[in-house]
Structure formats: structure tokens, C-alpha cells
Amino acid sequence: MKANHKKRVSAKRFLNPCFLKHHLSAFSEALAKKGFTPLTIRGYVDSVAHFGGWLQKRGKLISDIDLDCVNEFAAHHCSCQGGRRKDTVSRKYVKRVLTFVMYLDEQRVIEVKTNVNEPMPALLTQFATYLEERGLRPLTVKRYQRSMLLLLPKLGTSTEKYDITVDHRTR
Q1: CB count, 10 Å around CB of 159?
Q2: pTM attached to this predicted model
Q3: Which 3-state string (H, E, C) describes 16-64?
């Protein structure tokens, strides 16, 4: 199975991951070890390959990758290579790229900076404590905190207005 998995990752694609190829290969192996299906891994590989091609087209380096870069990718008017039917990328597509970027951060390939000048909101500190008390690994807690840091500005500061329908505003 492992040899078959490597064959899929290195197969010729419409989108070239460029300088992310080595890291993408390691990432896809990590996903396989976690039990992700080949179809799911293919979705991640395609998303990250697109991201890599987009980065190279813009002359960016691996050291340029940060959350702002992911947001730029999410908002780009897509005319990249590949068989895309739309000129935008989906939230799911961007989430896969963000997962890869967080993987690069965890592997210490890059350092993803969140609002360093601002202290962690008390709500997120409480959230992290809650997750740690339930046995989540520190890396998982850190990933969830970062995701929430991205989400909170979209939700606004008025916590009494948070409800299940708020998710529709963030799409």
C-alpha cells in the first residue's frame, strides 16, 4: 500500500506543487498514517499543489508562507493551470491548504505568526485549558487556537450574538 501511495503522490498532475513537493510528500504520508483515505489524501495533494503553483507564479518563497498568504490564495481570481471549473477556490480547498501550512509550522519548516502583538483572548485561553483537560495534545490545542484566531474577527466582538447561524456569515 505504501508504494502505491507514493506512486499516486508523484504521478503527473495538472498542478505542480513546485518547491513544496518534498513537504507535500511527507504531509501526504502523515495523512496516510493517520488513516485518511486515498481519495481524501488526493484532495489535499491537489489543493496544496495548486497552492504551490500559485506561490511560484507570484515569486513567493516557502519563507513567505503565512496566514495572510493563505488568505490571498483564498481570494485569488483563479486562472491557474488545471481542470478548475470555477475561478474561485472553495472553503474546503482553502482549509486543506491551511492544514498543510499548520503541518509545516508543526514540522518547524516555517513559523506561522498569529497576532503576536496582541495577547491571546481570555476566551481562547479558557478554550485551550478546556481542551487540555480533556486530553488533547498540545499541538492539537495550538491548531484549534489558531483556527479560532482566524474565526473570531469574522464573528465580531459581541459574544451574546453568537449562535449556530453565525457560521453562514463566515462563508
Answers
A1: 9
A2: 0.64
A3: CCHHHHHHHHHHHHHHHHCCCCHHHHHHHHHHHHHHHHHHHHCCCCHHH
Return left, alpha or beta for 22; rule: phi > 0 is left, psi -120 to 50 is alpha, else beta.
alpha
CA 25 to chain centre: 15
CB count within 10 Å of CB 58 equals 12
Judge whether 138 and 132 are in contact, CB under 8 Å. Answer: yes
* CA 2 – CA 5 distance, rounded (Å): 5
**Are the C-beta atoms of 110 and 63 separated by less than 8 Å?**
yes
Query: Which ranges of the chain does DSSP label H, i.e. alpha helix?
Result: 2-10, 21-33, 38-57, 67-75, 91-106, 122-133, 138-155
- CB-based contact 66:113 (threshold 8 Å): yes
- CA-to-CA distance for 50 and 16, rounded, in angstroms? 7
3-state secondary structure of 164: helix
Beta-carbon neighbour count of residue 119 at 10 Å?
9
Encode pLDDT of 128-158 as tens digits: 898 889 988 887 888 788 777 766 766 666 7
| Amino acid (one-letter) located at 24 | L
